[in-house]
């Protein structure tokens, strides 16, 4: 006899663990199955995000930023720090401690909320029956009225750069180096490549990024992307666009990368190569032939706007379905699905998904970019504010960047907000809230912001849409 639940969630990454906890809060008898094993072969919750993604990368980004700030900028503000050094194993150990605290925290939340956990692998069969195989190999039959698949994604691989034990690594490997490589190659100038490239560049590696596309960060507002490229180059990252990697050769403890660009065939030799060319949805051994769940042409589980699959009562959320591969997008999908199971009617607003790149300067945006609106022939107006004109940014000795607000030309409704600068990962929430409530640029202009804060940049950029900004010379000044 199968053990029966109201809801079985497969995967305890951010999408799955939010779904499981919310389902239990709503009084649904909930189970969550998770197969992750940490480096010591111990079960761990939290998925990619907590174990090898968002959290460990931010721990290293924050630590390496403090180092480079102390090294390059402390003297400018009158702090003399002599004999500055780094202890990479300690940095990695602290990162591991943060990860461990958080993954254990998820286990604690499951317990506190009454989620039944199964540590091992799930396989979905017809009629919402699940075959569970524990890490010891014991098999158990489970079933539920509702299944939520949240099996996430894994790093994409490319044939010229097969992952090796410690020379050619993926994002997880790049979070676990025990020393600073002298020369580091990064394939892919996406978010992973730039965040992890930044970490090791700050700690002293010569970082060369090989990107296939001719354009830098094509999904980011062009104005912001231009500023970002300028800043990363200034920091010493060598970003080569329009390159095609054709092969790798391992030579002792080094790896030679063969690539071509518009000038012909070239090569570079590195102490470490990080492959960061995107992620692919993960459904390996998940779906029995009779599960009724279908995949789209790119391997994502096919779902509608409410995250329902083709199989009745089976839902899928997070990286394994269409949309941006971001933890918070998966969390909101997970919550939407279980709240709808409980009879509530929430929706995910896919027009208001914030994206943040945690480099320095940080890059963040929500909504649409100018290039997107232009391509659609839509009429819009913009207002920008340079952080160099912010009193708080000057006081903090960090004036790089800008904030740009894009509003509908006729209605003034905010269509997108794009930012580059220090701490803007926190500022973008203000823009998301404004857009969620359908605010106009004038609404933000009429709102009072505390002084002196970086947030005032959003206020000024909103005022600038109508030419009213106080701290910039307005060319389109109006009464
Ligand atoms: P995952 O987190 O991948 O979790 C899926 C879980 O399902 C895993 O634990 C897996 O073991 C389990 N599973 C899979 N198959 C089975 C099965 N058959 N049975 C049982 N369990 C199974 N996003 C952000 O929003 N902000 C960031 O700052 C950020 N930084 C990142 C940095 C890096 C280096 C990387 C790689 C990613 C980063 N991301 C970030 C992306 C983010 O990690 C993902 O979007 C997020 O983890 C997706 O959540 P998920 O729950 O859908 O899947
Ligand atoms: P990505 O899609 O953001 O970037 C991959 C880059 O690699 C692209 O620019 C692509 O053109 C390039 N590329 C692909 N094949 C190539 C090749 N053969 N040679 C050279 N370049 C090649 O993917 P990613 O950076 O690996 O990130 C994966 C996912 O994880 C993203 O969807 C992202 O949303 C998520 N993530 C988010 C954060 C964050 O929110 N801060 C951080 C890390 C990762």
State the helicity in percent bands: 25-40%
Number of domains: 3
DSSP summary, beta strand count:
21
CATH architecture of the largest domain: 3-Layer(bba) Sandwich
Average pLDDT taken over every residue: 97
CATH superfamily of the largest domain: FAD/NAD(P)-binding domain
Strand content: 25-35%
Overall geometric form: globular
Provide an overview of this structure:
- The structure is a single chain.
- This protein has a 5-stranded mixed β-barrel with strand order 1-2-3-4-5. A 5-stranded parallel beta sheet has the order 7-14-8-9-10.
- The chain has 13 helices and 21 strands.
- A hairpin with a 2-residue loop joins strand 12 (254-261) and strand 13 (264-270).
- The mean pLDDT is 97.
- It has 479 residues and is α/β, with parallel strands linked by helices.
- It has 3 domains: 3-154 and 280-350, FAD/NAD(P)-binding domain, CATH 3.50.50; 168-277, FAD/NAD(P)-binding domain (3-Layer(bba) Sandwich); 361-465, 2-Layer Sandwich (Enolase-like, domain 1), CATH 3.30.390.30.
- Helix 1 (14-25) packs parallel to helix 4 (88-113) and helix 3 (54-72) runs parallel beside helix 6.
- The protein has helices spanning 14-25, 47-52, 54-72, 88-113, 171-174, 191-203, 222-234, 327-341, 370-375, 391-395, 424-436, 441-445, 456-465, and strands at 3-10, 30-34, 116-124, 129-134, 139-149, 153-155, 168-169, 183-187, 206-210, 238-240, 244-251, 254-261, 264-270, 272-275, 279-281, 314-316, 355-357, 362-367, 380-386, 402-408, 414-421.
- 44% of the residues are buried.
- The protein binds flavin-adenine dinucleotide and nicotinamide-adenine-dinucleotide.
């Amino acid at each position: 006899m199968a053990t029966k639940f109201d809801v079985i969630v497969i995967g305890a990454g951010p999408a799955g663990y939010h779904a499981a906890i919310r389902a239990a809060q709503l009084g649904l008898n909930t189970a969550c199955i998770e197969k992750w094993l940490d480096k010591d072969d111990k079960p761990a919750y939290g998925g990619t995000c907590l174990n090898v993604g968002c959290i460990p990368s931010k721990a290293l980004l924050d630590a390496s930023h403090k180092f480079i700030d102390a090294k390059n900028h402390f003297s400018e503000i009158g702090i003399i720090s002599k004999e500055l050094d780094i202890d990479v194993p300690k940095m990695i150990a602290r990162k591991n401690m943060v990860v461990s605290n958080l993954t254990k925290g998820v286990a604690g939340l499951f317990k506190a909320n009454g989620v039944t956990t199964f540590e091992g692998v799930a396989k979905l069969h017809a009629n919402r029956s699940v075959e569970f195989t524990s890490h010891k190999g014991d098999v158990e039959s489970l079933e539920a009225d509702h299944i939520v698949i949240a099996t996430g994604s894994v790093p994409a691989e490319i044939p010229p750069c097969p992952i090796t034990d410690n020379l050619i690594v993926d994002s997880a490997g790049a979070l676990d180096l025990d020393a600073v490589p002298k020369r580091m190659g990064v394939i892919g100038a996406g978010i992973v490549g730039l965040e992890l490239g930044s970490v090791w560049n700050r700690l002293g590696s010569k970082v060369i990024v090989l990107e296939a596309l001719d354009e830098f960060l094509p999904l980011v507002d062009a104005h912001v992307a231009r500023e970002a490229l300028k800043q990363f180059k200034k920091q010493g990252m060598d970003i080569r666009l329009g390159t095609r990697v054709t092969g790798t050769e391992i030579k002792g403890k080094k790896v030679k990368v063969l690539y071509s660009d518009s000038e012909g065939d070239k090569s570079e030799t590195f102490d470490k190569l990080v492959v960061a060319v995107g992620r692919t949805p993960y459904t390996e051994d998940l779906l029995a032939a009779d599960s009724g769940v279908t995949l789209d042409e790119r391997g994502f589980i096919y779902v509608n706007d409410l995250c329902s699959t083709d199989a009745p009562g089976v839902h899928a959320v997070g990286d394994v379905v269409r949309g941006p591969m971001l933890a918070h997008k998966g969390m909101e999908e997970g919550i939407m699905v279980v709240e709808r199971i409980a009879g509530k009617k929430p929706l995910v607003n896919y027009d208001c998904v914030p994206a943040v790149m945690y480099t320095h300067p940080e890059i963040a945006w929500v909504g649409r970019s100018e290039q997107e609106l232009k391509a659609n022939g839509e009429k819009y107006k913009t207002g920008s504010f340079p952080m160099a004109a912010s009193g708080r940014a000057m006081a903090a000795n960090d004036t790089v960047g800008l904030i740009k607000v894009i509003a509908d030309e006729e209605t003034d409704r905010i269509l997108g907000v794009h930012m580059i600068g220090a701490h803007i990962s926190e500022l973008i929430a203000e823009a998301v809230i404004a857009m969620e409530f359908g605010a106009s640029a004038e609404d933000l202009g009429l709102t009072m912001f505390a002084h002196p804060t970086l947030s005032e940049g959003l206020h000024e950029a909103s005022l600038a849409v109508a030419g009213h900004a106080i701290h910039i010379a307005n060319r389109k000044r109006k009464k």
